[in-house]
Amino acid sequence: MRFAFAVSVLFLCACTETPDLAPDSRFTGANGVALTAEQIDSTVEHLMQAGDVPGLALALISDGEVAYVKAYGFADVDEGRALETDTVMYAASLTKAAFAYTVMTLVDEGVVDLDRLISDYLPRPLEQYEDYADLAGDPRWRIWTLRMLLSHNAGLPNWRWFSDSQKLEIIFEPGSRYAYSGEGIQVAQLVLEEGLGLDVNALMQERVFEKFGMRRTSMLWRDDFRPNFSRGFDEEGNNLGHNARQSVRAAGSMDTTVDDFASFLAGVLRGDGLTQASRVEMLSAQVKITAEHQFPSQFPVDTNANQDIQLAYGLGWGIFASPFGPAFFKEGHDDGTNNYALCLDEAQRCILILSNSSNGEGIFLYLVDALIGETNLPWEWEGYVPYDRK
């Protein structure tokens, strides 16, 4: 049975920032339910307490504009430091969505072709690059395209270090099925950098971060983040710190804030910076998803459980059919980091959740259902088992 949202006990935490929603205003979800700021806050605070989540930042988007943004709890429990809406948090795989958007700007300019073989771009065979020497003797990489890589359809595992051999291998015939792969996104980055001579860090800074006013977002750790950044916490509340990333990784090196990423998400919802054709392509089904669970990607068990919601992957974003029309989403997951972005295209509503806890995913379903409506969110496939069902 789903959580009862008639909340009577508030979570006693440090809650910062005045919400954008005026006290006498309402945020109306895709389901037509209007919520006051007080109702939103009490729902979030109670779920955080129940799910043992120390810090969470929330943004709600309506009609292409950020309608509500607030941070709850702590950036660092040990220090008693409050989470704020401009606190730098690890984006994890939300990075992939920003990278895919960047690639689509290049598509619009005719700089890249999604269906051109990556072997046509690279100055030398992929296996001659140190990181991809494991692929020597397997010519199947030669049929890869950026479309395959961005839609997780290239036959690669998520990461090579999850395998017993610790070597990179093509585990499925390229183009045959969806299998989430950070490795594939890194190959796409290599194509841009080695094949086209582009600086992915500078490119994303210009085309995403500066464009959307994301002043506290970066693909690399910056010293000016230090006064106000979040640490991560595991399931038991142990402090995992914050990994200050020193190398640009399109698959997940981005740091951001809820203010910043909400600005980007609203821009994607509006279609800013892309032609209509490229936006449609990015958010259209490239490959159907038949796996019972998203992870582990290398050992899928097929099911038709998500057939009715047409679960699929676009270019950098997951997609499914909600009762309110097409939905697109992106997750971000690491030890001490659980993030979720979900948008409803026709309803023009989005929810963004950034949490600094490995327990965050346990309240995502309830937050989405309560704040924007029951969307058919594929929580079982995503591994978002509610905290009270574990």
Question: What's this, in brief?
Answer:
The protein has 390 residues and is of the alpha+beta class. The protein is built from ten helices and 16 strands. It has a single domain, classed as DD-peptidase/beta-lactamase superfamily (Beta-lactamase), CATH 3.40.710.10.
Overall mean confidence score, pLDDT: 94
CATH fold assignment: Beta-lactamase
The overall number of domains is 1
Distance between the termini: 13 Å
Helix content: 10-25%
Q: Based on the structure given, which CATH architecture is correct?
A: 3-Layer(aba) Sandwich
How would you describe this protein?
This protein is an alpha+beta fold and 390 residues long. Helix content is 25%, strand content 18%. Helix 1 (37-51) packs antiparallel against helix 9 and helix 2 (94-108) crosses helix 6 (200-210). The strands form four sheets. Strands 1, 4, 5, 6, 11, 12, 13, 14, 15 and 16 form a ten-stranded antiparallel sheet that branches. A two-stranded antiparallel ribbon has the order 2-3. 50% of the residues are buried. Residues 1-14 have low confidence and may be disordered. The two termini are 13 Å apart. The protein has a single domain, classed as Beta-lactamase (3-Layer(aba) Sandwich). The protein is globular, with a radius of gyration of 20 Å. A hairpin with a 4-residue loop joins strand 12 (312-313) and strand 13.
